[in-house]
Specification:
Layout: E1 7-9, H1 12-17, H2 28-31, E2 36-44, E3 47-57, E4 63-68, E5 81-85, E6 88-98, E7 105-111, E8 137-138, H3 150-153, E9 166-170, H4 172-175, H5 186-200, E10 204-207, E11 211-212, E12 225-229, H6 236-248, E13 252-257, H7 283-286, E14 287-288, E15 293-294, H8 301-318, E16 322-325, H9 328-332, H10 354-370, E17 375-378, E18 400-402, H11 404-414, H12 425-429, E19 440-444, H13 464-480, E20 484-488, H14 513-531, E21 545-552, E22 557-563, E23 569-575, E24 581-588, E25 592-599, E26 615-617, E27 628-634, E28 638-646
Parallel strand pairs: 9-10, 9-20, 10-13, 13-16, 16-17, 17-18, 18-19, 19-20
Antiparallel strand pairs: 1-6, 2-3, 3-6, 4-7, 5-6, 7-8, 11-12, 14-15, 21-22, 22-23, 23-28, 24-27, 25-26, 25-28
Helix pairs in contact: 5-6, 8-10, 13-14
Organism: Photobacterium kishitanii
Catalytic activity: Transfers a segment of a (1->4)-alpha-D-glucan chain to a primary hydroxy group in a similar glucan chain
Subunit structure: Monomer.
Length: about 650
């Protein structure tokens, strides 16, 4: 039913009074505050009138109208005006609708250049959206929420490469659910998830995509509303409250962001004004065969502005701390997942997508310029050079990159039968050859526990005890390696089932000692990592890593030392055999004492509690090319950490 007090003002003169300067509509720093539905006031007939100004980009449309509950979903009288600003037709359409308030449902109704009516469209710049079946946009007052995270926002800028970063990757809909299967809301999660993550010692929460997506089973990787947090779990204000509470608890928030492609749903960006407005019409450039979705045309200025503005939007209005950019490899390569003849080369005949490369550099530069404490992360699966190198040095400008090679090599090794691991020793040492070629995050993400891959613990060989011991040793090995840390939810409780987005984690497993032990171990590893500068300060610098033993394939044993800037040391030993190594001599460079600080085989972790010497003084007996040595015992299928204390 039509809103009784609503009135539409389509006259260009009225519109020009509520339009920003033309340059602001072309500047991604401001566009997200000007496009779409914006609350404003305008003087009409000498009276100050409040309402909402709608702006949409549809250069190939012949007509555009706004429809919603306020006008009975009838376009008559609510036709948008084509805007000619400063003598320039920039493809924008606008209208001012008086007396509209927050929460009004609306869509755009367009006809193409031939007058053919298109499917009703949600607002590409919409801040809030409904779920199936309407997929309506809703008006939303972006600045109404009162933030409390002032101290967090006022933090001094820190060098993230020298800080401990431990990410907990989470899918909101399947972390925990009510007994009837209903989702936890954003506000409910703030009361449950945040205390849990703080207790577990994580520094950051990394959320799988929260931008509105019509298909829940896409996990958020097929977004329609890039500017709207999904309403499955609450309102935008509720999501702001959740992030606010994270910050008040000292927990950072990183969002998984999807600028690589968009779905073909008719209410979204696809053929928005009757043309291939956001993608290349040639499927060799514009259609992703694997994902059955459109690829953004990164060479078009309005597409570049749209994506950059969206990245900045999440920092400005939701106070996020970083973006993990999904599927970067698919953006960088024109032949990504394509056979010969299925792709078009660039101007130089190669396979690099120059437009995507320049866009990623632009996005990273702008984000770091406006938000110097930001964390920009690339999920990039190839050896593309300089992903985490600054743009002024020719790189893409990301702060970090997921280390997919480490994940692949280390999991390949740990899945081997214990007795055969000695034949694959080079697999576990290989990652150190490229460990410092980028600023890496060691990631055990959702990708490793889906599509028939099974749970992480199911990859481990042996009986129940050996599987659990293998996983404990592997987790210890991960935390001892150079690189920041990321674990997908459920890893910390040794979930036995493959991740299922339609169900919650197997929290009932915590009634069993082995799962309690794994949870305690991950907690202790986080605390050890975050409190030991030797384990994080030089994560991205080769001077922070020294091999002690890398070639003992017969015993499947590794030993290395981690160092911080001041020279403090942590010795890490991993025994990937089911046999303990007693009185094992290791060469070390300095005289002093090594004190045990963590043992993944401890009884508290459901380990065998094999007897160890917890304090070991160095001998003046040279070994492994070092002037001193120690005799250590390493339990079966275990990783141990020894802190070095030099002689005074």
């Amino acid at each position: 039913m039509q809103h009784p007090k609503t009135a539409a003002y389509c006259d260009l003169n009225n519109l020009l009074m509520v339009l920003p300067r033309a340059e602001l509509l072309r500047d991604p720093v401001y566009m997200h505050n000007e496009m779409g539905a914006q609350f404003c006031q305008v003087v009409i007939n000498n009276e100050l009138v409040s309402g909402i100004r709608f702006l949409v980009y549809a250069p190939h449309a012949s007509t555009v109208a706004i429809i919603g509950d306020f006008n009975g979903w009838q376009a008559k009288g609510y036709q948008l005006t084509r805007i000619n600003q400063d003598g320039i037709d920039n493809g924008l359409w606008g209208i001012f609708v008086a007396n509209l308030t927050a929460g009004e449902r609306y869509k755009y109704q367009l006809t193409d250049q031939h007058g053919q009516q298109l499917a009703d469209k949600t607002d590409p710049w919409g801040y809030y959206a409904e779920q199936y079946p309407s997929f309506c946009s809703l008006t939303y007052q972006q600045n109404a929420y009162q933030w409390q995270d002032h101290d967090w926002q006022a933090r001094s800028v820190t060098e993230k490469h020298q800080q401990p970063l431990s990410f907990y990757e989470l899918h909101i809909g399947s972390w925990c659910r009510h007994e009837n299967g209903d989702f936890y809301s954003y506000r409910e999660l703030s009361q449950t998830l945040i205390p849990y993550l703080k207790e577990m010692g994580y520094t950051h929460l990394e959320l799988m995509p929260v931008s509105e997506h019509p298909f829940y089973g896409s996990w958020g990787y097929q977004p329609i509303g890039l500017f709207a947090p999904t309403s499955r779990f609450g309102s935008p204000d509720d999501f702001k409250y959740f992030i606010d509470q994270c910050h008040l608890a000292g927990l950072g928030v990183v969002l998984d962001w999807v600028p690589a492609h968009f779905p073909a749903d008719e209410h979204g960006l696809a053929n928005f004004d009757g043309s291939a407005l956001y993608h290349d019409p040639d499927p060799r450039r514009g259609w992703h065969q694997d994902w059955q979705s459109y690829i953004y045309d990164y060479g078009r200025e309005h597409v570049r502005q749209y994506l950059l503005s969206n990245a900045l939007f999440w920092f400005e209005h939701f106070h996020i701390d970083g973006l993990r950019v999904d599927a970067v490899a698919s953006m960088l390569y024109l032949d990504y997942s394509r056979k010969d003849g299925e792709w078009l080369p660039n101007a130089d005949g190669g396979n690099y997508n120059y437009d995507a490369i320049s866009l990623l550099r632009w996005i990273n530069d702008e984000v770091y310029s406006h938000y110097p404490n930001a964390i920009m992360i690339a999920e990039e699966s190839t050896a593309f050079p300089g992903v985490s190198k600054p743009t002024y040095l020719g790189g893409l400008g990301f702060g970090f990159k997921w280390n997919m090679g480490w994940m692949h090599d280390s999991l390949s090794y740990i899945k081997e039968e214990i007795t055969y691991r000695s034949d694959h020793h080079n697999t576990i040492t290989m990652p150190l050859f490229y460990a410092f070629s980028e600023n890496y995050i060691l990631s055990l993400s959702h990708d490793e526990v889906v599509y028939g891959k099974g749970a992480l613990i199911s990859k481990m060989p042996g009986d129940e005890w050996q599987q659990t011991a293998n996983l404990r040793a592997y987790m210890g090995y991960m935390y001892g390696q150079p690189g920041k840390k990321l674990n997908f939810m459920g890893t910390e409780i040794a979930q036995t089932a493959e991740w299922n987005h339609d169900d919650q984690l197997q929290w009932s497993l915590l009634q069993f000692a082995r799962h309690q032990g794994m949870q305690q171990l991950v907690k202790d590893l986080n605390y050890l990592y975050c409190s030991s500068s030797a384990l994080y300060q030089l994560d991205c610098d080769s001077s922070g890593f020294e091999w002690r033993i890398s070639d003992d394939s017969n015993n499947s044993l590794l030993a290395h030392e981690r160092l911080d800037i001041a020279g403090n040391r942590m010795l890490v030993l991993s025994n990937f055999m089911a046999t303990p190594r007693s009185m094992y001599r290791i060469g070390v460079p300095l005289e002093g004492t090594y004190e045990l600080v963590l043992n993944t085989d401890a009884a508290t972790y459901w380990g065998s509690d094999y007897p160890l010497i917890t304090t070991i003084a160095t001998d003046k007996q040279p070994s492994h090319g070092q002037p001193y040595s120690i005799l250590v015992t390493v339990p079966p299928l275990a990783t141990v950490f020894f802190k070095f204390i030099p002689n005074s």
